[in-house]
Automatic annotation (TrEMBL):
Its EC number is 2.3.2.31. It comes from the Eukaryota. Belongs to the RBR family. Parkin subfamily. SMART domains: IBR. One of its GO terms (biological process) is protein ubiquitination. It catalyses: [E2 ubiquitin-conjugating enzyme]-S-ubiquitinyl-L-cysteine + [acceptor protein]-L-lysine = [E2 ubiquitin-conjugating enzyme]-L-cysteine + [acceptor protein]-N(6)-ubiquitinyl-L-lysine. The keyword Glycoprotein does not apply. GO terms for cellular component: cytosol; mitochondrion. This is E3 ubiquitin-protein ligase parkin. It holds the Pfam family zf-RING_12. It comes from Leiothrix lutea. It is found in: Cytoplasm, Cytosol; Mitochondrion. It is an enzyme of class 2 (transferase). Pathway: Protein modification; protein ubiquitination. The gene is Prkn.
Length: 290
């Protein structure tokens, strides 16, 4: 959409806000708004899901990774509200998928935190990962299911082309990938080394030595500082608002001259933005438009 709704009329009156439909083959250019109770969990069967972290970049915040100003963007739920453009979010997710670096949370499921690694920033609405497209989203779901099996103490069949999730009895070393319902492949393997089942100890040569985990997605510290959604809002407020000298409520200056009038009905004090004094002829003659 060209801009986010700012009042009830924007969402209740048709044709108020324009935009460009992202669905292939659709030429729609007017936004329609529908409401969904936030207390109800989102189901996979729902045709329309609110991606609450995706928004128009109305504050012109730079992306935390590419440092470009793009729109729309995804705003992470961390303290700093870091911003990432959708192209970089796609790359971030695919990179973390390739490295199996997604986090399996018992309550949320298979998710990712803010790209800067901020604590408590896991994405709660997992439908945001549909931004990846059908192929990558299917891979995300498969990896999530596999991680769930592993978290439950299960194993994955190592046979190429199978990968079935199995939940054998604790301590059982000989694992049968039992065929049935078009899932298992019938292979028998060792729970410890994932090779064909054998008696005796596993071959230690099969264990990788000195493996080093690599982080495939790096964020520049300066870029992270610039990509703060709320920080930009605070800076904007600091630059464009001053307290009324009479009643002290914040008054925003949006262009125009230095002659200010308090919008509070009980006040309506007229004052000078530049010097903070009650509006007078000196202000008018010396710095009306400075």
């Amino acid at each position: 959409i060209l801009k986010g709704p700012s009042c009830w009329d924007d969402v209740l009156i048709p044709n108020r806000i324009g935009g460009v439909c992202q669905s292939q083959g659709c030429n729609g250019n007017v936004a329609e708004f529908y409401f969904k109770c936030g207390a109800h969990p989102t189901a996979d069967s729902e045709t329309s899901v609110a991606l609450n972290l995706v928004t128009t970049n109305s504050r012109c915040i730079t992306c935390i990774t590419c440092t470009d100003i793009r729109s729309p963007v995804l705003v992470f739920q961390c303290v700093h509200r870091h911003v990432i453009c959708l192209d970089c979010f796609h790359l971030y997710c695919v990179t973390m998928l390739n490295d199996r670096q997604f986090i399996h949370d018992p309550e949320l499921g298979y998710s990712l935190p803010c790209v800067a690694g901020c604590p408590g920033s896991l994405i709660k609405e997992l439908h945001h990962f549909r931004i990846l497209g059908e192929e990558q989203y299917n891979r995300y779901q498969r990896y999530g299911a596999e991680e769930c099996v592993l978290q439950m103490g299960g194993v994955l069949c190592p046979t190429p082309g199978c990968g079935a999730g199995l939940l054998p009895e604790p301590g059982l070393r000989r694992i049968l990938c039992e065929p049935g319902n078009g899932i298992g492949c019938g292979s028998v393997f060792c729970r410890e080394c994932k090779e064909e089942f054998h008696e005796g100890e596993c071959n230690s040569l099969l264990s990788p030595q000195g493996a080093v985990a690599q982080k495939g997605f790096v964020v520049d510290e300066h870029a992270a500082m610039q990509a703060r959604w709320e920080e930009a809002s605070r800076e904007t407020i600091k630059k464009t608002t001053k307290p009324c000298p009479n009643c002290n409520i914040p008054v925003e200056k949006n262009g125009g001259c230095m002659h200010m009038k308090c919008p509070r009905p009980q006040c309506k004090f007229e004052w000078c933005w530049n010097c903070g004094l009650e509006w007078n002829r000196t202000c008018m003659g010396d710095h009306w438009f400075d």
